[in-house]
Amino acid sequence: MERVTSGDSTSLLSKNVKIEGDIQGEENLQVEGQLKGSIKVTGNVLIGNTGIVEADIEAQSIVIQGNVTGNVIVRQQLEIQPTGRLIGDCTARSIDIKEGAILEGRLNMIRPSGDSGAAQASSTTPEKSPEKDS
Length: 134
Description:
mainly beta; 13-stranded parallel β-sheet; 1 helix; 5% helix
């Protein structure tokens, strides 16, 4: 839970609460209850041990201790704790999967902004030669 520290405040979805819908905000979010929909926050997201999320998630950093079904886009680090389970695709700059954690999906690593690797990758793509009609 120490990863959810950036920003001034943290919204809490407690374990006895169920929500269907989209959550957007400019702060951190801690989910201990059930959520079905989508999450898009500028801060960090913590899915606690009792959290059950069926949603696509976009956040600065995400720590998963509970269950997540959906795709995640993480601008910094994704951490899946031993009790955590992610079923879905992940795009992140850094990924930390602890022993015992479950991940079923594809991983896509993003490069830090300003990295010229993307330009290098596109320059290595072979150009299509013009076709001639006979």
